[in-house]
Amino acid sequence: MAESPAMGTPSLKLSDNTGMVLFRGELKSKTLQEGLFEVTKVKVPAKGRINSLDGLSIAWMSPDELLIFLPLGDVGKLIDALDDKLEGEETLIWDVSDLRSVFQIEGHFIREVLAKNSPADLNRDKMRRGTFRRTRFGQVAVAFWFKEETCWFLICRRSEAGYIQRLFEVSTQEGEIPSFY
Amino acid sequence: MLKLLCPYCGVEADETELVSGGEAHLKREGPESSDEEFEEYLFLRDNPKGIIFERWRHAMGCGKWFHVARCTETMEVFGTYPAQTYKPPTKVLQEIKARRH
Ligand SMILES: [Zn+2]
């Protein structure tokens, strides 16, 4: 039997234990790539991608910017290790955990709910595992990616998290979820 | 609806993810320029019906500025290219020529 939207309304919850470190620099530099890999054990992602291993993820934000996700308690340690490893290199390494919010979205029809509020191409061949898509959700800038079809993540500015939460609730009310994908 | 390929992240961005920055390839006039030249640089912009070169920013994305060659009449997009240039790349000019002759 095909799944119908009524079967599994997705839910959204803040993931406040996630730390975020912004990394800026010349991402094509071998020194930076190797340094990042030695410290995080995760490879610098290709354009538009996110790489994850054991609770640490690195996302591609722009040609000169990465965002590293890891448990909040490990942020200080990571920044120290990166500063150490990349001493003398031109970089900006900054704890942005308080600047942004991470949401975890669980359930079915998540693609549908995102597609209702974002112009991003959410077809399965475009929005694949490992794709990190920066776009908008309603009127605010976000980025999303997924671990599994039923487990997605979304980041936004912390000051706009309340808006995301309310818009998500409205978009997932009974009878409001279409079935596209 | 306008869709532009961001040359930095390779995302086909929707108009609503972008911010328009107006005419591209302006000549910056400095303090030694005449009042007319400076006025032209600051305020006067072309508004052609047809081919236009524009600046756009991938605001809800990578945040970078890029350039677009498009047609205001047919809404065709001839190409997008990074902003680190003074004039449109040959490839884009060839594309315009190919479609206009
Ligand atoms: Zn972009």
Compact overview of the structure:
The complex is a heterodimer of chains A (181) and B (101). Helix content of chain A is 23%, strand content 34%.
Number of helices of chain B: 2
Strand and helix order of chain B = EEEHEEEH
Architecture of the largest domain in chain A, according to CATH?
2-Layer Sandwich
Which CATH class of the largest domain in chain A is shown?
A: Alpha Beta
Classified by CATH, the class of chain B is Alpha Beta
CATH homologous superfamily (4th level) name of the largest domain in chain A: Heterotetrameric sarcosine oxidase
Q: How would you classify the helix and strand content of chain A by structural class? A: alpha+beta
| Largest sheet strand order of chain B | 3-4-5-6
CATH fold-type name of the largest domain in chain A = Alpha-Beta Plaits
Work out the helicity level of chain A. Answer: 10-25%
Regions with little confidence, pLDDT below 50 for 5+ residues of chain A: none
DSSP E strands of chain B, number? 6
The tally of beta strands of chain A, per DSSP, is 10
Basic shape of chain A: elongated
Characterize the largest beta sheet of chain A: strand count, sense, and whether it forms a barrel. 5 strands, antiparallel
Which topology of chain B does CATH recognise?
Folate-binding fold
Oligomer: heterodimer
Question: How would you describe this structure to a colleague?
Answer:
The complex is a heterodimer of chains A (181) and B (101). Chain A has helices at 30-40, 75-85, 110-117, 161-171; strands at residues 11-14, 18-24, 50-53, 56-62, 65-71, 92-95, 100-106, 133-137, 140-148, 151-157. By secondary structure, chain A is α+β, with helices and mostly antiparallel strands. Chain A has two domains: 18-95, 2-Layer Sandwich (Alpha-Beta Plaits); 100-171, Gyrase A, domain 2 (2-Layer Sandwich). In chain A, strand 4 (56-62) and strand 5 (65-71) form a beta hairpin. In chain A, helix 1 runs antiparallel to helix 2. The longest helix of chain A has 11 residues, at 30-40. With 101 residues, chain B is an alpha+beta fold. Chain B has a single domain (3-100), classed as Folate-binding superfamily (Folate-binding fold, 2-Layer Sandwich), CATH 3.30.2270. Helices cover 19% and strands 31% of the residues of chain B. Chain B is built from two helices and six strands; from the N terminus they run E-E-E-H-E-E-E-H. Chain B has helices at 35-42, 90-100; strands at 3-5, 12-14, 19-23, 51-57, 65-71, 77-82. A four-stranded antiparallel sheet of chain B has the order 3-4-5-6, covered by helices on one side. Chain B has a two-stranded antiparallel ribbon with strand order 1-2. Classes of the chains: A alpha+beta (181), B alpha+beta (101). The interface between A and B is medium-sized, with 14 and 15 residues. The site of zinc ion has 8 residues of chain B, from loops.
